[in-house]
Design brief:
single chain; about 190 residues; globular; Arc Repressor Mutant, subunit A; about 65% helix; mainly alpha
Length: about 190
């Protein structure tokens, strides 16, 4: 069977081929979970947001604009769901203190690969560096964290991030540079060079 692009699969889904959703889910469940788990507090919440994202993809397939990228559209849905969840938690007094960016509680198939490093001192240093990055990320304002995660962790281009967030590309770039500056300062404060 020839390779089908995400956009082709979504068009098939709109045409009633429900098995296309399964292919999209298998392609995107791990990257989507990694992204969402950096935006919400608990792994259970991340799984719920991912599931709801794919349900909305199925439900709103007819709203997908021809010529758009599936990944941009999917991340936009997921990000809106993350924001909705944060608003609900805030409303109920469960304000998120720091987003979960660790692999703790992440299903094995989504967890970061283990290091091939055999030197315990180097492994400890890497663990400490990753913890510092997580703490620095948690200090970023939400709008900067969203841009940084979409750019650096998900590999989206500024133009694509602008589409996900619904803001001009220049706004995305200014948020990115502000996020990098804040990260640099936070990491220096945490002793990471």
């Amino acid at each position: 069977m020839p390779f089908r692009t995400d956009e082709d699969l979504l068009l098939d889904l709109r045409g009633g081929q429900a098995d296309s959703l399964g292919v999209l889910v298998s392609r995107w469940e791990a990257p989507l979970f990694r992204f969402v788990s950096r935006m919400v507090e608990r792994p259970e919440d991340a799984r719920d947001v991912c599931q709801e994202t794919f349900l909305r993809v199925l439900d709103k397939a007819d709203a997908f604009r021809d010529g758009a990228r599936f990944s941009t559209w999917m991340y936009q849905i997921a990000l809106n769901l993350c924001r909705d969840q944060a608003r609900r938690k805030k409303r109920w007094g469960l304000l998120m203190v720091a987003p979960a960016v660790s692999d703790e509680g992440v299903p094995h198939e989504y967890a970061a690969p283990e290091s091939a490093e055999t030197d315990p001192a180097a492994a400890l240093e890497e663990t400490e560096r990753q913890g510092a990055v997580r703490r620095a990320l948690s200090r970023l304002p939400r709008d900067q964290r969203e841009v940084l995660l979409l750019k650096e962790y998900e590999g989206l281009k500024f133009r694509e991030i602008a589409g996900v967030l619904g803001v001009p590309e220049s706004t995305v770039k200014s948020r990115m540079y502000a996020a990098l500056d804040t990260m640099r300062t936070s990491l220096a404060d945490l002793g990471v060079r």
